[in-house]
Amino acid sequence: MRTTPQLAIALTLIATFFWGSNFQVTKFALASLPPWTASVERFFYAVICIFIFLAWKEGIHGKVLKQNWWTFIVLGAIGVAGFNGAFFVGLQSSNPVTAALIVATTPISANILEAIINRRLPGLLRVVGMVISLLGVALVITNGELNLGGMAQVVTGDILIFIGSLGWSIYTVGTRVLVKDATPLETTSWTMLFGAIILVFIAFFVESPVTALSSATFESHLACLYIGIGGSTIAYLFWNMGVAIRGAGKTAIFFNFVPIFALIIQVMMGNIPSLPQVIGVVITIVGVFLGQGSITGDKLFKGILSNR
């Protein structure tokens, strides 16, 4: 198979489709599984697949683990156990499209966090993009009622997913500044393993995972298999193939398709959003484009002048 830019775009879109579909499919997993147990089952499949690929592609090197084991544990706790625990618990009450929009703001908060760590002011457009994207999320959550009554509609799940997205931002920045001499695939594999182990301990502490797994429906197990292999391993691999072919900057823009795919899937399932919610989705995506630097001030100004 020839690695062309067109193939990279196709693989990147498939990755974002998997990520966008995760939000809806997780609802099926949670139909008969408690959240922490569902998260454990998901990463059981994901860890097996990612380590098989790591062994085949790069080999498993003990030196990398010895050098970064403590960092891998911390990042696994925050970015894998923390984020996915918040994700699964949050989706018990949060709407999948709302959750996708909240997660879509993660790259901006990661960029702002990195600027703070490096002791430099974040770019004005990044801050403006974050504010705009959060306004769009608020429109979706409140169905256009940006007042005290509307904000009272914000469910605990939305707050948990937002906290989880901040955890993912910390994880993203941490993999850049804390991990030493490890490839992205190695970092992902080891943090995923330690995160999964932590999830197992939490599941046994707050739930009864053995009983839950044995009594869950086939559909819930199938959903966990899907988000474990497709929504985790394949999505990550396809995304990184896109990065290798087209570069990180050009590929990062496609992250904005995640909430779009989540919305399309929700509509296909017969759940039609209201007009204020559709407007909120558009505002959020524009804000994310701004915050990621995909739309510069010059481009925005020229676009306004040309009525585009």
UniProtKB/TrEMBL annotation:
Q: Which domain of life is it from?
A: Bacteria
This protein's record includes keyword Transmembrane helix:
yes
As for subcellular location, the record says: Cell membrane
Recorded topology in the membrane: Multi-pass membrane protein
Q: Does the keyword NAD apply?
A: no
Residues in domain EamA?
A: 7-141, 156-290
The protein's UniProt keywords, in alphabetical order, are:
Cell membrane, Membrane, Transmembrane, Transmembrane helix
Q: Where mainly found? A: membrane
- Any transmembrane segments, and where? 39-56, 68-91, 97-117, 124-142, 154-173, 185-206, 218-239, 251-269, 275-295
List the Pfam families.
EamA
One GO cellular component this record assigns the protein to is: plasma membrane
PANTHER family in UniProt: INNER MEMBRANE TRANSPORTER, S-ADENOSYLMETHIONINE_S-ADENOSYLHOMOCYSTEINE TRANSPORTER
Family, according to the entry, reads as follows:
Belongs to the drug/metabolite transporter (DMT) superfamily. 10 TMS drug/metabolite exporter (DME) (TC 2.A.7.3) family.
Q: State the protein's name.
A: Threonine/homoserine exporter RhtA
Q: Which organism is it from?
A: Xenorhabdus doucetiae
